[in-house]
Amino acid sequence: MPLLRVKDLVKHFPVRGGVFNRVIKKVHAVNGVSFDVERGEVLGVVGESGCGKSTLGKTIIRLLEPTSGTIQYDGTDISTMRHVELMPFRRRMQIIFQDPYSSLNPRLTVQALLREAIRFHRIVGRSEMDEYIVNLIRKVGLRVDARDKFPHEFSGGQRQRIGIARALALHPEFIVADEPVSALDVSIQAQVLNLMMDLKEEFGLTLLFVSHDLKVIEHFCHRVVVMYLGFIVEVLSSERVHERAQHPYTKALLGANPIDDPDDRRPLTVLQGDVPSPFDPPTGCAFAGRCPIAEERCRHERPVLERKKAGHEVACWLVE
Q1: Based on the number of CB atoms within 10 Å of its own CB, is 167 exposed (0-12), middle (13-18) or buried (19 or more)?
Q2: Is 65 contained in some domain?
């Protein structure tokens, strides 16, 4: 049984207006998403900004309430649980936020930040608290004296390490990493990714790794979920993803990646057209308006995610 099973998950945000503040339209952020995450797996979620990646991660751990669909964690449906019922699962599911500054309380020292969560969930007793916090700080590669400092006294990479320490403080099984390195310099990104990889092995973590960078996803994840306008368009192994990708959107994302070899003069792929409005998604394939091979059927019928090979699913009428 997978640790996490998401089935037909939908998240819409109502937009209110008018004299009576009624719901006049909805933002279709996540549209009927289904996938499994096995224990110990790192599942990457990739796509352009605004495709619903972060909303998906936050909805899965119930920071956002799902509009419909089911979320099964370790065989238990948590999608409709009340706050009190969710508390045992809060310890087991954590998140690392994208912005390591805005996600940390600027008025609390590192020690106070960590102590707050540890005390609330009763992870260790009061007599063991200080030693536990010191070990956490060392685990993420910071000096012990960091515990008495405030978030503004650290660099971006150090703040993200504090965010990782806060997520690990409760001994979780599952972590949503919401673009954890996108706000960092490239030189610091590698350090934080290597730290997360080491911690993943040490603690036996399962991760949902959200990113817009396919190079990071290839390096860090076992499988890749590609999202476009709130829909999953392809699921495939991250191994040799350049060779195995079949959906036109996945190929466009790969073609837009900077090329490492300075002697390789292949032109980068530039998608034409605009992303459809999430207020009114198209009736057919969400990518049809920008797809170079789209046919008339694509504009009127929405393709379903189908298994093409073992471990490879694609939502496209034109992929055999």
Answers
A1: buried
A2: yes
Q: Which of 314, 228, 251, 177 is nearest to 52 (CA)?
A: 228
Tally of domains in the chain: 1
User: Is 26 within the bounds of a domain?
Assistant: yes
The CA distances from residue 79 to 30, 94, 149, 174, 230, in Å, are 15, 16, 38, 16, 18
Are the beta carbons of 114 and 194 closer than 8 angstroms?
no
Give dist(CA 223, CA 239) in Å, integer.
8
Residue 240 burial by CB count (10 A; 0-12/13-18/19+): exposed, middle or buried?
Answer: exposed
CATH code for the domain in which residue 309 is found: 3.40.50.300
Percent of the chain with pLDDT over 70: 96
Residue ranges of alpha helices (H) inside 28-82 are: 53-60
- What would the mean pLDDT of 34-56 be, rounded to a whole number? 93
Write out the two tokens for 305: 């995610």
Measured CA to CA, the distance from residue 240 to residue 39 in angstroms comes to 22
3-state secondary structure string across 123-155? CCCHHHHHHHHHHHHHHCCCCHHHHHCCHHHCC
What tokens does 42 get?
């790192």
Instruction: Name the 3-class secondary structure at 253.
Output: helix
> What is the arrangement of strands in the sheet containing 206-211, beginning at the earlier edge strand?
93-96, 174-178, 206-211, 42-46, 223-228, 231-237, 312-314, 306-309
In a domain, 320, yes or no: no
Statement: the pTM of the whole predicted model exceeds 0.85? yes
The yes-or-no verdict on residue 270 having pLDDT over 90 is no
Yes or no: say if 133 and 145 are a contact pair by the CB < 8 Å rule: no
Residue range 84-138, pLDDT digits in tens: 999 999 999 999 998 878 889 999 999 999 999 899 888 999 899 999 999 999 9
